[in-house]
Amino acid sequence: MDIDSILGLASMPMASPSYPKGPYLFLDREHLIISYESDPLAIRDALPDPLQPDGSNTVLYEFIRMPDSAGFGDYTESGIVIPLNGEHVNFTAQMYLDDEPPIAGGREIWGFPKKHAAPKTLPYGRVLHDYKDKARAASAPLHRDAARGVPA
User: Fold this and answer.
1) Distance in angstroms (rounded) separating the CA atoms of residues 59 and 111
2) Model's pTM, two decimal places?
3) What is 17-138's CATH superfamily?
């Protein structure tokens, strides 16, 4: 394999790349975002310097269903997002996915902190996450909605 072929690869290893070359399309995504109030010191501790939280003590827990993602297939992800001070911008503190190609691509291409986990979609289209201890406050509203039979 010549140098240009190697440099043209989307990812490694050469014989079996983790994900294909772009463009990447994410179609028909389903989102559920839960906002909750958290301990300001815990929020501060989750941010690298020089980032500063926005002062609202708000944390977002996202559940995203990706049924049609070009090059990455069908997967589900969830994670913790912290609103930052200044511009309308967020810091993604943790992300958990159930498929290896978007984990590798998310880390290598976009720098997201993705790890393997097993988020689950409920029959009516909502997502549960196995890492409830990471965001206990986020899981309580979801369980109350599930118990009430939130429609699809």
Assistant:
1) 20
2) 0.71
3) Acetoacetate decarboxylase-like (2.40.400.10)
